[in-house]
Write a structure and sequence with these properties.
Elements: H1 2-6, E1 14-15, H2 18-25, H3 29-41, E2 45-48, E3 52-55, E4 64-70, H4 75-88, E5 92-98, H5 103-113, E6 119-122, E7 126-127, E8 133-134, H6 138-145, E9 152-156, E10 167-170, H7 173-183, H8 185-188, E11 193-197, H9 209-220, E12 225-228, E13 241-245, H10 248-260, E14 270-274, H11 278-282, E15 286-290, H12 292-304, E16 310-312, E17 315-318
Parallel strand pairs: 4-5, 4-6, 6-9, 9-10, 10-16, 11-12, 11-13, 13-14, 14-15
Antiparallel strand pairs: 1-3, 2-3, 7-8, 15-17
Length: 323
């Protein structure tokens, strides 16, 4: 305790194992265990399963220290982060880091931060060797399993098998798009076909359950459908189709081509965009989207109330003139 308070042992420093300290001090393992339990109860050290014991953040105030690990710096991910920061307010210090869907950067970020924060807010999204989206890799799953669960909050996706009492605010990508399109079914009936533009070669790939939910909806409601990976440079618009667009670059291409052919969105061509942004609201584009601001607020509330719950975040269908 003297070494921690004096700064001789710094935050994040790994201290000896029970066996090591027992041997070096000639004290029994039971004595060391009691001492470490006392230090944990005083919030001076934390134990990470399978890794070891670490000096906890040395607090100069009552503020919480929070590590926020995000897969990519997109506009909607930052909306989550900003809402989280605003809700935490002056009750916490927040360190934001990005790992760009890279498994090694993810694991390295967690290892370097272990023992240094009161909470870890983590958004797990990765890509495999084929550049397809996966919510968890085996190594990432193992890294999360070894984290102190009372300090863990997961965002977006939760994998079955993660043990312990942790918090989460998540989406259900398959059922979210299914139920959102159900709300749009009356509008969609005036189109000959529904086309999902799902980019296979995106730098940051999207969850494949989006495709599964889309196909399930179209099959259940007898809509003709197609899944393509990009917008052609020159669309013929021979039939009256509705497009569901995930990437904003595809949305821009689609809108530009309809305007060039003097077609009217919501009449000649239907457009639904995935993920709400202020620009889509300004352009009057119909959207299906999770509530990003609510996700950030709910995550902060879990921390401020010290609750361990798994919350399903709201997913919305926002009807505008493009459909």
């Amino acid at each position: 305790m003297n070494d921690i308070n004096s700064g001789t042992l710094e935050a994040g420093h790994q201290i000896p194992s029970i066996n090591e300290l027992s041997h070096s001090s000639s004290l029994s393992r039971d004595t060391i265990q009691k001492a470490y339990k006392y230090l944990r109860n005083k919030n001076l050290i934390i134990s990470v399963k399978g890794v070891g014991n670490f000096i906890n953040i040395k607090k100069s105030s009552d503020k919480l220290n929070i590590f926020f690990l995000i897969n990519k710096p997109s506009s909607y991910k930052m909306e989550i982060c900003n809402a989280f920061v605003d809700t935490i307010g002056d009750k916490g210090n927040i360190a934001v880091s990005f790992y760009y869907c890279d498994e090694n950067l993810f694991i390295d970020g967690l290892k370097k931060s272990l023992g240094m924060f009161d909470y870890y807010v983590i958004m797990p999204h990765f890509k495999n060797e084929s550049n397809n989206h996966v919510s968890y890799t085996d190594k990432a799953f193992e890294a999360l399993q070894n984290m102190p669960k009372d300090k863990l909050i997961l965002l977006d996706t939760v994998k079955e098998g993660i043990t312990g009492n942790y918090g989460a605010v998540c989406q259900d990508f398959k059922n979210d798009i299914f139920h959102a399109l159900e709300q749009a079914s009356d509008k969609l009936e005036k189109y000959d076909k529904i086309i999902l533009i799902y980019p296979k070669n995106a730098v940051f790939p999207y969850p494949e359950p989006i495709i599964t939910g889309f196909k399930a909806f179209c099959s259940s409601y007898n809509f003709n459908f197609e899944v393509i990976d990009t917008i052609d440079d020159c669309i013929s618009f021979e039939s009256k189709d509705a497009y569901i667009v995930i990437e904003e670059s595809d949305l821009v291409d689609l809108v530009q081509q309809t305007k060039a052919k003097h077609l009217v969105l919501g009449k000649d061509v239907g457009v639904v965009s995935y993920n709400e942004t202020p620009l889509k609201s300004l352009l009057d584009i119909t959207v299906i989207s999770t509530d990003f601001k609510a996700m950030g607020v709910l995550t902060a509330d879990l921390i401020l109330s010290n609750k361990k719950e798994i919350i399903k975040n709201e997913f919305k269908y926002i009807e505008r003139s493009s459909l």
